[in-house]
Amino acid sequence: MSLHEECGVFGVFSTRPVDAAGISYYGLYALQHRGQESCGIVVGGDGVFCSHKDIGLVNDVFSKEVLASFPKGNMAVAHVRYGTTGAGNRSNCQPIEVNHQKGYMALAHNGNLSNGDRLRSGLELSGAIFHTTSDTETIAYIVTGERLQCSSIEEALCRAMYTIEGAYSLILMSYQKLICARDPKGFRPLCYGQMEDGTYIVASESCAIAAVGASFIRDVEPGEIIVFSKEGVKSIREHCGFEQKSLCVFEYIYFSRPDSVVDGISVHNARIRAGEILARTHPAEADLVIGVPDSGLDAALGYSRYSGIPYGIGLIKNKYIGRTFIDPGDRMDKVKIKLSVVKSEVAGKRIILVDDSIVRGTTSTQIVELLREAGASEIHMRISAPPFMFPCYYGTDIDSQDNLIACKHTVEETAKIIGADTLGYLPADKLWCLAGDNGYCSACFEGKYPTSIPEEGLKYRFEHGISEV
């Protein structure tokens, strides 16, 4: 078990026909780190929707021929997905498309509903037939139900937000409008920008806005709904300001790309600060600081800067292997396929090894073994997050305490299990170094949940495949 990325959402709106599919392709490419299981694009224009989605990486799913098959349109909604256990099939690819009495809708979603099971059960008992195992379809049903009772799609979404609970950053497309919304606690990031020709871009992260040549405007605020239409841009703030902000702090630790700015905070700078705190709280005598690619690199640099211990490149990641590469089974070690050691850097040296997290401990053990085989004399592992102690109900793939090494072993025992000389975690009371004054969710570290949690627990959700991140 290891941590997996969140999903990524992307949207395009223009008052004239543009290459919405091409723009979305580059946007999804920039968000590939958030989901490597499947992807999809739906383009809208002149009252017609055209879509393509499949399992695989963006570059594999969207060939030149597929992209050329899309007509120009004035809107698009797109998605890259990482799905949980049991949900790895094409039917769960997003965006979800719904054809109902008052029109057509396409929806892409990042997050998990904490009341998703209860809502889905109620819908099924009322006769709803589900074709996927995702919370996204639950949201689509609820929005559609509200749309049949009100005058606009944005009003329907606003009403639906009184029913759905938990984490959701979503983009919704109707025949005439592109709408984005962020849950009232702001668990997942969402922002928008504008291209020189006036085209608006909505994305999970600012790196995707920059990737298509657009200028960042601002983050979507927790609880805010933004409507893009021919009449302009409208902000609906009916759900804003009533909840304490709870951005997932792991966006700064791991999920987001280092060149993104999430809620006004540079992800790169946040990780640098975490490394500095690690150096201050868990010092060690060593010759070299190295990071585990990719999310451990910035924290390693921060550790080096504060401690004065030289920073080096000791581990190289094979950048041509995605999460979907063919599993060779027991014949070969996956970590050795993905990572290799620069022996000349680490041989005979005392190493500070910085990574973003330890979940079960298997991957950390393998990386430590690689460094030992390369001749490292000492390995002091430092983690830029606190120990995982509790399950997550908002999208991070931590399903139960059964798989968390920190729940069963002390820090000293964990160090021995993974083969490190010493081990140090970022203290939970120092998480402010990542999120600053922004409100954040750290329930997976401290067990303080910002919403009610499912009575049956998250493990039930994972076993039945009713979860979507």
Structure description:
By secondary structure, this protein is an alpha+beta fold. It folds into two domains: 8-246, Glutamine Phosphoribosylpyrophosphate, subunit 1, domain 1 (4-Layer Sandwich), CATH 3.60.20; 268-437, Rossmann fold. It has 17 helices and 23 strands. The chain has helices at 20-30, 58-61, 64-69, 116-125, 135-147, 153-160, 206-211, 250-255, 267-281, 297-307, 334-338, 343-346, 362-373, 411-418, 432-435, 443-446, 458-463, and strands spanning 8-18, 38-45, 48-55, 73-81, 96-100, 103-110, 169-173, 178-182, 191-194, 200-203, 215-219, 225-229, 232-236, 247-248, 261-262, 265-266, 288-291, 315-317, 339-341, 350-355, 378-383, 422-425, 440-441. It has a seven-stranded antiparallel β-sheet with strand order 3-2-4-1-10-9-11. Helix 5 (135-147) crosses helix 6 (153-160) and helix 9 crosses helix 10 (297-307). The longest helix is centred in the middle third of the chain and has 15 residues, at 267-281. It is globular and about 70 Å long. 55% of the residues are buried.
How many strands, what sense, and barrel or not for the largest sheet? 7 strands, antiparallel
CATH-defined fold name of the largest domain? Glutamine Phosphoribosylpyrophosphate, subunit 1, domain 1
Task: Give average pLDDT, whole number.
Answer: 91
Based on CA inertia axes, which overall geometry fits? Answer: globular
Query: Any guess at the CATH architecture of the largest domain?
Result: 4-Layer Sandwich
Output the CATH class name of the largest domain.
Alpha Beta
Distance between the termini: 16 Å
Please give the number of β-strands: 23
Q: Provide the domain count.
A: 2
